[in-house]
Amino acid sequence: MKVEIVPGCIACGACVSINSDVFELTDTIHVHQDMVSGNEEDCKAAADACPVNVIKIVE
Ligand code: SF4
Questions:
Q1: What is the total count of domains within the chain?
Q2: How many angstroms separate the most distant Cα atoms in the chain?
Q3: From ligand 1's centre to the CA of 4, what distance in Å?
């Protein structure tokens, strides 16, 4: 699984609150791709929770 962020993140922090190992919010959102393995369900939950739908799951 690969997690991508498309433009439009509003830095709400919802994904970080779901999994702060995968998602890190600094000036913008960063995905730690090396942490996705083992956290796939959280990645899917974050994609569902993102209010602007910018988290894309690539299988
Ligand atoms: S949930 Fe979406 S809008 Fe919120 S910080 Fe994460 S990527 Fe950005």
A1: 1
A2: 27
A3: 11
